Amino acid sequence: NAGVTQTPKFQVLKTGQSMTLQCAQDMNHEYMSWYRQDPGMGLRLIHYSVGAGITDQGEVPNGYNVSRSTTEDFPLRLLSAAPSQTSVYFCASSYRVTSGIKEQFFGPGTRLTVL
Amino acid sequence: DQQVKQNSPSLSVQEGRISILNCDYTNSMFDYFLWYKKYPAEGPTFLISISSIKDKNEDGRFTVFLNKSAKHLSLHIVPSQPGDSAVYFCAASEMEGSGNTGKLIFGQGTTLQVKP
């Protein structure tokens, strides 16, 4: 198993550009999520999905869109990049556990710089 | 509104001694708590967890303690090793159901340095 994969590893954008961060998992996990990590802020939830066709907003959803057309893929779209979106982005997945510990598996991250 | 807080940004301990990392939360609906470890340029990896029906969970050198009345949990590492140097995040979630999706909320992280 490759686990959770993210592409690209690094990206530099200009303000106003759009791009899609890719995330894929091969563990047949129902639950997938996107986080951003900023100094002193920890990991903040952007969007999440409990299954194909179902998405919802997390703590900091503004400026980001997601879709979940398949169980394996959960892309994150930046429609018009802003310097405030400079961050490290992590995708994570887990089984959808209705009662119990939901251990999430994380990808290696995408480091995004918006100039 | 930070629901999960790690008030110590950093901690330095000597090899062989105990490391204690603390975490506080405000949401009384949280049922599950997890600790993650993160090395530079890597994604976080799961370390240990605890359910709210327990007050202690142990896994080798790692023990997590939960004090529900104080809304406080801590991670103890004994003995600490230089390879434990990393950023540690605590996370909490509500049980899925009743409108909750079980999403994880993370704290800000504590950077642990274990000196040889």
Question: Could you explain the architecture of this structure?
Answer:
The complex is a heterodimer of chains A (115) and B (116). Chain A is mainly β. Chain A is built from no helices and eleven strands. In chain A, strands 2, 4, 5, 6, 9, 10 and 11 form a seven-stranded mixed β-sheet that branches. Chain A is globular, with a radius of gyration of 13 Å. Chain B is an all-beta fold and 116 residues long. In chain B, 0% of the residues lie in helices and 55% in strands. Chain B has no helices and eleven strands. Chain B has strands at residues 4-5, 10-14, 19-25, 30-38, 45-51, 56-59, 62-67, 72-77, 86-94, 104-106, 110-115. In chain B, strands 2, 4, 5, 9, 10 and 11 form a six-stranded mixed β-sheet that branches. A five-stranded antiparallel β-sheet of chain B has the order 1-3-8-7-6, with no helix packed on it. The mean pLDDT of chain B is 92. The chains are: A mainly beta (115), B mainly beta (116). At the A-B interface, β4, β5 and β10 of A face β4, β5, β9 and β10 of B.
How would the blueprint of this fold be written?
The complex is a heterodimer of chains A (115) and B (116).
Chain A: E1 4-7, E2 10-13, E3 19-25, E4 31-38, E5 42-51, E6 54-57, E7 64-66, E8 76-78, E9 87-94, E10 105-106, E11 110-114
Parallel strand pairs in A: 2-11
Antiparallel strand pairs in A: 1-3, 3-8, 4-5, 4-9, 5-6, 7-8, 9-10, 9-11
Chain B: E1 4-5, E2 10-14, E3 19-25, E4 30-38, E5 45-51, E6 56-59, E7 62-67, E8 72-77, E9 86-94, E10 104-106, E11 110-115
Parallel strand pairs in B: 2-11
Antiparallel strand pairs in B: 1-3, 3-8, 4-5, 4-9, 6-7, 7-8, 9-10, 9-11
